[in-house]
Design goal:
four-stranded antiparallel sheet, alpha/beta, 13 strands, 2 domains, Aspartate Aminotransferase, domain 2, globular, 12 helices, Aspartate Aminotransferase, domain 1, seven-stranded mixed sheet
């Protein structure tokens, strides 16, 4: 049988998302938290899990988790949808609002999944280059949005991989358009402290996604949530798969929300280390770091980035090699780790 006769021609060139994981001692390539769960929280979680009826389906609406989130965020429970990572929720949003005349737009460079998910959803997808300051070009964006009848805009805030928050003025202009829905991916909100969440009443076309993968250190459990007006969450729930968030993940996220102050300690340490690493890179010859609002730093090297990447790997430090023609040429990205991991990275880079 020739399977090609059944395949979608528009996905022929799509490659599965893959990241190499060569042997290493310090993993600083994926913007994860360097801190695992504290022993006392692990114990509490273990006791909760021991009481779970695993033969039963989980709560299909994640009601308890949504209740805890609504209290934490100060939003109505009807404004929340939780999912198997924020990626799933972004994909659900595209499925719910991806009309045949819609255009999915995003800056480049940015998080690669916006383009991948748009292609899967059969959406027209357009990437608009950032300016020399890695910011949004207001005139270019407004002109582009004018050419489409229905716009779905995806903004990483702060942006991955550049690390900066884009101009709030440009985003407000996007949100002021009646032909545009704007999804702000605030995966790194806890490290930037900047959010558009207060704009929900003013902008009915605003959608925000966040995750437990970064500041809360639950990347291994894949838990994300979406915040939007009830009329938007109602449509997203139509395409969301039933029981999309397993019982274990629901319990873990609910447990961690009760210990929010403990994770604020981790965030403060990461921010302190971010400043230390940035200053060290800035003082290092042949290395040019870019200002960041996230838990990672993008930097450019005067020499070959692939060679720098390989030398760091030989020293046991894994970072992300982003080198490609254009604005990311000779660029690498390093996640802020523990003080010991950051020392390994800086020492390896100096060598």
């Amino acid at each position: 049988m020739n399977l090609r006769q059944f395949l979608r021609a528009d996905l022929a060139d799509l490659k599965a998302y893959h990241v190499d994981q060569p042997p290493h001692r310090a993993k600083l390539d994926a913007n994860e938290s360097p801190f695992d769960l504290p022993p006392e929280i692990r114990q509490e979680l273990s006791e909760e899990i021991a009481r779970l009826p695993f033969q039963r389906y989980p709560d299909g609406t994640s009601d308890l988790l949504r209740t805890q989130l609504s209290e934490r965020l100060g939003v109505d429970k009807a404004e929340l949808v939780v999912g198997n990572g924020s990626d799933e929720l972004i994909g659900n949003f595209m499925l719910a609002f991806g009309r045949s005349d819609a255009c999915a737009s995003f800056p480049i460079p940015t998080f690669s999944m916006y383009g991948i998910l748009a292609q899967i959803a059969r959406l027209k997808a357009v990437g608009l280059p950032l300016n020399a300051q890695f910011d949004l070009d207001a005139d270019e964006w407004m002109s582009h949005l004018d050419t489409n009848r229905t716009n779905l805009v995806f903004i990483s805030y702060p942006n991955n991989p550049t690390g900066n928050n884009f101009s709030a003025e440009v985003i407000h202009r996007m949100l002021s358009r009646p032909d545009t829905l704007v999804l702000l991916d605030e995966a790194y909100y806890e490290f930037s402290g900047q959010t558009f969440i207060e704009g929900r009443d003013r902008y009915p076309n605003l959608i925000i996604t966040r995750t437990f993968s970064k500041a809360y250190g639950l990347a291994g459990l894949r838990i994300g949530y979406l915040i939007a007006r009830p009329e938007i969450t109602h449509e997203i729930n139509k395409v969301r798969l039933p029981y999309n968030l397993n019982r274990f993940s629901q319990v873990a996220a609910t447990c961690l929300l009760k210990h929010h102050d403990r994770f604020r300690q981790y965030i403060r340490l990461i921010l302190s280390e971010r400043e230390r690493v940035f200053n060290a890179l800035d003082a290092m010859g042949g290395v040019h770091p870019f200002p960041t609002d996230a838990n990672f730093i993008l930097f450019r090297t005067d020499g070959s980035a692939p060679k720098v990447f390989q030398r760091l790997l030989e020293n046991g430090v894994l970072v992300r090699n982003l080198d490609r023609p254009g604005p990311l040429q000779n660029c690498l990205r390093v996640t802020i780790g523990t003080p010991e991991e950051n020392d390994m990275f800086l020492e390896g880079l100096e060598d």
